[in-house]
Every structure is written in structure tokens, then in C-alpha cells.
# Entry
Amino acid sequence: MISFLKGVIVEKKPTELLIECNSVGYSVSISVNTFQNLPEVNEQITIYTVLIPKEDSWNLFGFYEKSEREIFNLLITVNGIGPKSAISILSSISATELAEIINNNNPKQLQKIPGIGAKTAERITLELKDKIRKSDLITGISSDMLNEMAIKAEAIEALIVLGYNRNLAEKTIAGIIKSNKSNLTNEEIIKLALQKLLK
# Structure
């Protein structure tokens, strides 16, 4: 089993990474969250992986952080969630945010993820709640991180109420939080988001 790859990035796309390790090129399926954390092309990286063999192919999935790989492995144990669906989910939400939603038994929040209906959301929370609590995914979340997650969710919902679509709202809020090192209030984040969107 391939647990990780350490090599040089040859090419990167939001859903795929091509990495050269000892003169061998590996094509790795990745989430958008992993893509956003990758260094530039020609730089070295260690990517954590899961190899899933099928009858007609061997598929390699890669993750920038071990926590994302851990929750990916949990997601694919859920009936009806395959590797591609799991990657799609982790492209819409971070591993820690997903773990917290499942831990809080909040399937309605999961339904906001594209492609996740009510039944699937219920199944994910029901089947993974106990597994999440036994993992390191929850214990690794600090109170500051939880507070930031709550503020982020509130700001996104505020933009949606104002008429902006969810994808644009999430992208805008994430960019503002990432570019501002100081702790911003919910009101400040929404104000900065509106300034950016109205330019």
C-alpha cells in the first residue's frame, strides 16, 4: 500500500496532482482544499495517499494533511459514498469542519454541500458520529478554531440572505479570513465581503 509520496510537483490542477518520485510520475486525485495548500510547480512536497484498486484501474487519492486522509477513509465506509464523492465533499468543506458537523449531529448543515441530499446527510452523521468521536479529528480542534468556523458559517449565511449564491459567498469569506491575520468579528467580515463583491 502506498501511504505517502515525496517528490516534485510536475503539474497541478484543482482535482489532480502530477508528482515525480524517483523518476516515476504519479497521477493523484485531490480535493480543492488540498490543491489550495500545494506549493508551486517544481517544488517538493509530501502528499499522504490512499490507493484504491478497481477491476480495470488503480486509483490514487492524495491529501495535504493526514486529517483529510483520515476523514476520507471514514467517508468511503458510508453506504453510497465512493472515493469520488468523498473527494467532492472534501472540496466543499475542510476535514475539521466536516468532523465538527458530524460530531454535532447536524445533517442539515451537510445538505448545504453540493450533491448531498437529506438521506445521504443523515446516513453520514449516523454512521460516522461514533467513529469521529473516537478519532483525533475532534480533539485537534481548538476553541479558537471552533469560534472561527461559527463566524465563517454565519457570514456565509448572511451573504446568501442578501442574494449571493453559496459558492461565491464561501469563496469570498474564505479569502477574507485567509488574508486577515487579525481576528475579525462577523460584522467586519460581512462588511469586507460586501466591499469586495461590489467592486
About this structure: The chain is about 50% helix and 20% strand. The beta strands are 4-13, 16-21, 24-29, 44-53, 58-63. The first helix runs from residue 32 to 37.
